[in-house]
């Protein structure tokens, strides 16, 4: 996860009007397939435990389910950028809210407001995604894992969302939050009812919704989101030493954006719908996830030997796998 400033240079891409139209619109057959896969992963995880109930099958199941749930939230993110159905905002938002955001207790409209601020203030004070601003070195990484698995970090995040919602940045925050809360309650009530159909109701008490849906979502899925954001936005510490003072976190020459060469198993848990092409998304958030690999190739064409580039004022690098990035973070590299 080395970020060498000395090798940075200016780079960029110009888009024609035809390219802008093409890159914004996803291909429908692939879109349907990609939107279905996280739900299929969740169903398979639940089916594993329901068919073979044991502590071991539950441990495997919650990892599989949490990966699928994280994928649902990533698709909600895509919808927040009006990229699921760019031709029709009403359909786009309905899909994003009811099929992906509400199931994962993500307040869609509030998230959209916060996410706009994240894009505007990456690596700067006020960024609503601030997990990468923390020190994760050594034992602190494992402390973050424990906080997530206990559910404590999720509750702290909810508190943070509610507090920041009181600022001037959030127009009609309270109204949006109330509407989102109603949708979350309704959708989760439906999920509760469906899962209860397969629940043996020990002592007449339903448990499967809580252990197969709520628990992995508030713990492991949240941890996956934290780790992904950490690797995508925290600069390498050994690469930033000696750099001059800048307004950006750890004195990077511009807002830090990292894409990752994710392995197939990392895509299963951390980066569905090409989310590991994170720098490309931040540079051009109007481009559909389906086209980000092509944009990555265009960025680095002719710069294969460079470790970093300055693009539109952003400090852009490509890292190895998320696993390699985690190791570097723990070692303080």
Describe the structure.
With 333 residues, the protein is mainly α. The protein has one domain. It contains 15 helices and four strands. Strands 1-3-4-2 form a four-stranded mixed beta sheet. Strand 3 and strand 4 form a beta hairpin. It is globular. The relative contact order is 0.16. About 2% of the residues have low confidence.
What's the short story on this structure?
The protein has 333 residues and is mostly helical. It has helices at residues 17-24, 28-51, 55-80, 89-101, 108-120, 139-150, 152-164, 173-196, 208-218, 220-233, 237-240, 264-269, 278-283, 292-300, 322-331; strands at 10-11, 256-260, 308-311, 314-319. The protein contains 15 helices and 4 strands.
Keywords, separated by commas or semicolons:
333 residues, mainly alpha
Query: Which word captures the global form?
Result: globular
Please mark out the parts with pLDDT under 50 across 5 or more consecutive residues, or reply none.
Answer: 4-9
Query: Major beta sheet, specifics?
Result: 4 strands, mixed
**Any idea what the radius of gyration is?**
20 Å
What percentage of the residues does DSSP assign to strands (E)?
Answer: 5-15%
Total of DSSP H or I helical runs spanning 4+ residues? 15
Number of domains: 1
What distance lies between the first and last C-alpha atoms, to the nearest angstrom?
A: 8 Å
The strand line-up of the biggest sheet is: 1-3-4-2
Order of helices and strands: EHHHHHHHHHHHEHHHEEH
**Roughly what is the average pLDDT, rounded to an integer?**
89
| Helicity range | 55-70%
Number of strand elements? 4
């Amino acid at each position: 996860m080395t970020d060498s400033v000395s090798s940075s240079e200016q780079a960029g891409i110009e888009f024609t009007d035809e390219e802008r139209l093409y890159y914004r619109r996803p291909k429908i057959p692939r879109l349907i397939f990609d939107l279905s896969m996280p739900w299929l992963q969740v169903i398979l995880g639940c089916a594993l435990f329901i068919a073979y109930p044991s502590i071991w099958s539950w441990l495997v199941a919650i990892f599989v389910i949490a990966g699928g749930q994280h994928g649902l939230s990533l698709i909600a993110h895509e919808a927040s950028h009006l990229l699921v159905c760019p031709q029709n905002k009403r359909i786009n938002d309905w899909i994003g809210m009811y099929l992906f955001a509400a199931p994962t207790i993500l307040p869609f409209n509030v998230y959209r407001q916060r996410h706009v601020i994240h894009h505007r203030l990456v690596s700067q004070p006020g960024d609503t995604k601030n997990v990468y601003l923390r020190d994760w070195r050594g034992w602190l990484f494992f402390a973050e894992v424990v906080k997530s698995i206990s559910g404590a970090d999720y509750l702290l995040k909810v508190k943070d969302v509610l507090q920041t919602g009181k600022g001037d940045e959030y127009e009609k925050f309270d109204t949006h939050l109330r509407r989102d809360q109603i949708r979350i309650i309704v959708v989760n009530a439906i999920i509760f009812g469906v899962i209860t159909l397969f629940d043996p109701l020990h002592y007449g008490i339903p448990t499967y919704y809580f252990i197969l849906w709520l628990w992995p979502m508030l713990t492991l899925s949240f941890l996956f989101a934290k780790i992904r954001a950490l690797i995508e936005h925290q600069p390498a510490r050994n690469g930033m030493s000696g750099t001059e003072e800048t307004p950006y976190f750890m004195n990077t020459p511009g807002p830090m954006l990292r894409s990752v060469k994710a392995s197939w198993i990392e895509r299963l848990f951390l980066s569905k719908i090409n989310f590991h092409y994170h720098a490309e998304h931040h540079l051009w958030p109007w481009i559909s996830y389906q086209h980000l690999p092509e944009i990555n190739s265009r960025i680095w064409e002719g710069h294969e030997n460079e470790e970093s580039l300055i693009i539109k004022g952003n400090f852009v690098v490509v890292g190895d796998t998320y696993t390699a990035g985690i190791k570097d973070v723990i070692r303080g590299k």
